[in-house]
Amino acid sequence: MKLICIGRNYSNHIAELQNETPDAPIVFLKPDTSILLKKQPFFIPDFSDNVQYELEILVKINRVGKYIAPEFAHKYYDHIGLGIDFTARDLQEDLKEKGLPWEKAKSFDGSAVIGKWVSKSKFKDLNNIAFHLKKNDAIVQTGNTKQMLWNIDAIIAHVSQFFTLKIGDVIFTGTPLGVGAVATGDILTGFIENDEFFSIKVK
Fold it and tell me: Is the entire prediction scored with pTM above 0.85?
């Protein structure tokens, strides 16, 4: 399986980090070794002093696809999830300044939190899903899929032009405004609407 991640998909987050708005989805990959194992804490890596959470809606691919038209993209996933794309922001900024790839800052071990999955039929409108993150019981990040520059189907159509999508692949659809640093002892809990999808401890 592969983790396909979309960057700069919420205009408020683009402004938050003072980035330029892209003309097409920004795509990068995480290896399966980046998945945080179930019931395991997230350990802050020793190569970063500023690891930040990025809460994201996830999609699990359910069939093989290539060159998928947007109008058929909905057939390629049945489940929606929630997760975190942990980012070593200080390392990422250094790599960006040098014009280098982001993988060291985005794809390190344990950097991908994948919560539980639910059927997409649970949602009346996939383009209007509210989600939020609590850090130590305080809400620190909120978003809604209606804020996406490219919705789920558009992302699948775009990504499939470059990568063959396979069963079990996971797409991280981008993060909204409100990213922030984590510290030892933090508890991060993610919700879609009022349903808890994950809870992890930072060490």
Answer: yes
